[in-house]
Each structure stands twice: as structure tokens, then as C-alpha cells.
């Protein structure tokens, strides 16, 4: 059995799970081709594979746009598909929504799984040296990740059709109140976008940020520049080795989250 595993990841949580999953599946029943989703590879082909697996972080109770773009560009031709998501707290109907969307693209869902991980949206907003930050950084909520993946592998190996989860009743509150408040006060972090910068006195020109940005939003022209095509995935800011990247004054002196594999 051949699986094509595509994952989107900002700070690294989903990448961590994707790699663990790939290893476990390969040790047990299949070969895996693994790809990190960026704006450069959302047009892909799955002809050579039996199953497509897709992983993503929950962003505002949904899957990131690039994941929808990836599925939108494919004709599933009745092939099996599964999803895995990482979340800080609460996923709303994200998995249900992307599963239902995959059916409109002729895929047959065979399963989904979610993992609690440290929430990357607020980690960089906490002071580096606070007991709260240390607790968050040390915590991987889904403690038994390997067992969860092993059980999920058995489901994927059987490839039986999976039901789309029901809409969660309490998401009514989310759709009608929380989303409205977000749009009014936070605008989905979009007010951060024009505040990203790199301090040229600290930058070591390693280009980790330009290479890692899923949107090609960072360029180097004598110094690092940020465009406005940003998912606010927090990858650049967390993975800049000398911590040269900041969001205005919001993140100065605050925690960085880039060693997820060591947690
Ligand atoms: C912009 C943004 C929005 C987020 N929204 C949610 C959310 O609605 N619900 C949730 O549980 N976690 C949310 N999170 C937390 C991430 O889903 C979680 O930390 C995930 O594991 C990050 O994965 P990554 O490191 O692969 O990007 C959000 C994170 C970001 C950066
Ligand atoms: S510029 Fe935006 S999209 Fe690119 S890595 Fe940074 S936060 Fe993510
Ligand atoms: S990752 Fe940081 S140090 Fe490296 S080029 Fe980007 S801003 Fe400069």
C-alpha cells in the first residue's frame, strides 16, 4: 500500500505528528511519501498512490486555506483520504468541514484524528521566563501520541469508509458570537501582518525564514522584508535562530517555540 502524506505546519507541531505517523505507518504496513504543503506545491498528483493523508493545524476552528486549495486542485477518483489535525484547545467543525469538502472532490474519507498540542497562536505572546511559559512549552497534551497513532494506523490499514462527524451543537455559539468578536477585535490576527520585521543588526542572513515560509512572503534584498501574503503561522518568528524577527513590540523578549521534537 502506498500513502501520500501532505501536511501544513507553522511552528512545527503538525510536522512532528506527521513524521511520527509516517514512521509508525511505514514500520507497520505501507510505504509513505511525505510532503510539507506550501504555496509552491498545492498542485500535486496522487496517481501513484492508494491513499492520500492530509495533516494541518487548526486555525480559527478551520483548516488553513492552503489545505483547501490542495484538495480543491485534485480529483480524488474515489480514492481513500484521511485527515489529522493538531490543535491548542478547540477545533470546532474543522475536521467535519474539510472531510465534507473532500467528498465534493470525489474522495472517500476513511478516518480522522486530532491531537492536543501547545497552542502556537499565543506562545510568543508570553514572557520567555515565566512559569506559565515553561509549563506550556513542556506540555504535549496528547501524551500517548504513539499509541493513538498506532490505533489510527489499524483503521487506515483496513480502509473502511468513515462517517463525517456531526456538527457539534456548541459550535453554534462559536459561529454567531466568537467569530463575530474575532472579526471586530482581532481580525484573525490580520492586524499583525504589517508589523512583522527582522532587525538587520541581529539577522545572520541564514535564510531559514525565506525557505520556511509556506506563502513565500519573505524576501531578502539586502535585508529581510515581509509582504502581506501571510498566514500568521508563526513559523518565521519561532524558527529564526537569533530571534531577529518580531511582531512590532508584541513579541519582544517573549518565548519562542522551535524544539517541539525535544519536548
Ligand atoms: C493563527 C492561528 C490560529 C489558531 N486557531 C486555533 C483554534 O481555533 N483552535 C485551536 O484549538 N488552536 C488554534 N491554534 C493553535 C494551533 O492549532 C496549534 O498550536 C497547532 O498545533 C499548531 O500547529 P503547527 O505548529 O503545525 O502550526 C491556532 C494557531 C494559530 C497560529
Ligand atoms: S511570514 Fe507569515 S506565513 Fe510566512 S512564515 Fe512568517 S508567519 Fe508564516
Ligand atoms: S531566519 Fe532570522 S536570522 Fe535567518 S535570515 Fe531570517 S531573519 Fe535573518
Task: Describe the structure in your own words.
- It is a single chain.
- The relative contact order is 0.16.
- The chain is 33% helix and 18% strand.
- Helix 1 (13-28) crosses helix 6.
- The chain has a five-stranded parallel β-sheet, with helices on both faces. Strands 6-9 form a two-stranded antiparallel ribbon.
- Helix 3 (94-104) links the parallel strand 4 (80-87) and strand 5.
- The chain has 263 residues and is of the alpha/beta class.
- The protein has helices spanning 13-28, 65-72, 94-104, 120-123, 131-138, 145-158, 171-186, 208-212, 235-239, and strands at residues 2-7, 31-36, 51-57, 80-87, 108-116, 196-198, 218-220, 224-226, 245-247.
- The model has no long low-confidence stretch (mean pLDDT 90).
- The longest helix has 16 residues, at 13-28.
- It has a domain at 2-122 and 140-158: 3-Layer(aba) Sandwich (Rossmann fold).
- One iron/sulfur cluster binds next to helix 9.
- One iron/sulfur cluster (SF4) binds next to helix 9.
Feature tags:
single chain, alpha/beta, Rossmann fold, 9 strands, globular, binds flavin mononucleotide, binds iron/sulfur cluster
Number of strands: 9
Structure ligands? flavin mononucleotide, iron/sulfur cluster
Question: What is the share of helical residues?
Answer: 25-40%
Order of helices and strands: EHEEHEHEHHHHEHEEHE
Amino acid at each position: 500500500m502506498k500513502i501520500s502524506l501532505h501536511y501544513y505546519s507553522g511552528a512545527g507541531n503538525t510536522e512532528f505528528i506527521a513524521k511520527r505517523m509516517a514512521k509508525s505507518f511505514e514500520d507497520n504496513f505501507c510505504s509513505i511519501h511525505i510532503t510539507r504543503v506550501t504555496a509552491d506545491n498545492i498542485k500535486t498528483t496522487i496517481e501513484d498512490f492508494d491513499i492520500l493523508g492530509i495533516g494541518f493545524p487548526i486555525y480559527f476552528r478551520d483548516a488553513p486555506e492552503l489545505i483547501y486549495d490542495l484538495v480543491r486542485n485534485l480529483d480524488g477518483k474515489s480514492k481513500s483520504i484521511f485527515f489529522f489535525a493538531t490543535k491548542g484547545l478547540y477545533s470546532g467543525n474543522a475536521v467535519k468541514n474539510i472531510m465534507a469538502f473532500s467528498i465534493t472532490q470525489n474522495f472517500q474519507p476513511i478516518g480522522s484524528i486530532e491531537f492536543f498540542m501547545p497552542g502556537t497562536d499565543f506562545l510568543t505572546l508570553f514572557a520567555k521566563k515565566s512559569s506559565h511559559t515553561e509549563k506550556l512549552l513542556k506540555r504535549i497534551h496528547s501524551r500517548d501520541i504513539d499509541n493513538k497513532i498506532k490505533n489510527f494506523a489499524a483503521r487506515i490499514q483496513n480502509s473502511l469508509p468513515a462517517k463525517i462527524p456531526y456538527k457539534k451543537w456548541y459550535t453554534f455559539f462559536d459561529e454567531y458570537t466568537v467569530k463575530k468578536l474575532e472579526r471586530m477585535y482581532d481580525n484573525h490576527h490580520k492586524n499583525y501582518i504589517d508589523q512583522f520585521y527582522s532587525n538587520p543588526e541581529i539577522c545572520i542572513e541564514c535564510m531559514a525564514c525565506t525557505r520556511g515560509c509556506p506563502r513565500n512572503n519573505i524576501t531578502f534584498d539586502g535585508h529581510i522584508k515581509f509582504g502581506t501574503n501571510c498566514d500568521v503561522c508563526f513559523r518565521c518568528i519561532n524558527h529564526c535562530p537569533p530571534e531577529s524577527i518580531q511582531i512590532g513590540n508584541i513579541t519582544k523578549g517573549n518565548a519562542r517555540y522551535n524544539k517541539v521534537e525535544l519536548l
